[in-house]
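HOLO CASE FILE
Compound: fe (ii) ion
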Amino acid sequence: LCFEPKKKKEMSQKKKIALIALVSIVVPLCSAIPPPPPPQWDSSYSGLVLRPSCSLPTELHGRVQAALSTLRTKGCLLRDLVRVRDRDVFTSVSRALLGQPGHTYRYLDTRLFAGSPHEEEEEQEEQEEQEEQEEQEEQAAPPTPPGRCTVPPQFNVTLLNFMDPAAMRHLKEEPYYGMGKMAVGWHHDENLIAQSPVAVYSYKSCVGWKEEGEWDSKEVSRWRIGLKVAWDIYTPGLALPLQSGDCYYMRDDLNTTHQHCVLAGDNARFSSTHRVAECSKGTLEYIQSRCTEALANLGVDPESGAHSLRSLLPLTLKHCEDIHNEVEFEWLRQYWFQGQRYTRFCSWWSGPMELLERDWKLMETMVGPLHMAPWQKLEMVSNK
Ligand SMILES: O=C(O)CCC(=O)C(=O)O
Ligand SMILES: [Fe+2]
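Model generated. Tokens follow.
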């Protein structure tokens, strides 16, 4: 395709899209007797599992839905400024990241700092929440087909999403299969550990609806999850309609081999997307240990308190400068720009971030000499 002239390329592309639109699968709504899945479900989408709302306890729905609504009414869900194809754009959905204390999740050049529900609470409440979460995760674990590993995944973060389509003026049309308006465009979930499943709880809320009766109206268009094989617009795409309270799972390597998108329905909707984020360079513990490494090269005179570098070896100085940059660009700037907005709901990160800034300032004095002219460096060494 790349070698075709533009006009011809555009036309052939349109034709293909129209053809694909005809064959793209639309899975019928979940009813009492579930319809047989389309043949492509098994052959091309075997990692996708739907767990209908009715298979989860009503009490669990009540708690999760109340929690999501509270987060929204308290203003905890915010649109992220992310980078897409060299452009800074706001996400259509409003988001918040919850997760294990000190964890972050990086996507589209933005680092999200996990709010932790365990903050400043009494021990007992913490314990209860932990147990509740474990119970929830157990109940939310996908049904396991025979022969599959039964160990439940240890999700470390959940990205919450909310969107009220009535409040969004411009939503992009799904470009390949004519599936309709997208709340989230085609993507893979980034920065997950290999084979990480993604478990999603979907909840459409009454926000924005005058009459609750309209809720069940047949006219109301449903939210759907779109799936397609990555880099392939010939295999039919799949649009999975969701009812409020349904869960779906992307298992095995489905998130890698396929892309997914979220197709907006008429009403407002929340989703809670549970993931096992790859956090080897994404925890507070990690970046603190990097700071300790860099600051090991800083000597302090016990009498005067004056700072000096222990080693001036180029490799050591370069290592220190790398860490200085990492703290500044991956953590401090990301926090001031993105994470700090959540401080009024969760102050977990405030203290650690002040300490990281203090370390960064010390490193600033250490890497300063790198930017000096050679004679200035010599002066500094001779002053030692
Ligand atoms: O809302 C959903 O069902 C999925 C959202 C999603 O794909 C994401 O947050 O990465
Ligand atoms: Fe996603």
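CASE NOTES: Residues 187, 189, 260 surround fe (ii) ion (ligand 2) (CB under 6 Å). Confidence is low (pLDDT under 50) at residues 1-12, 14-32, 210-217.
CLOSED: yes
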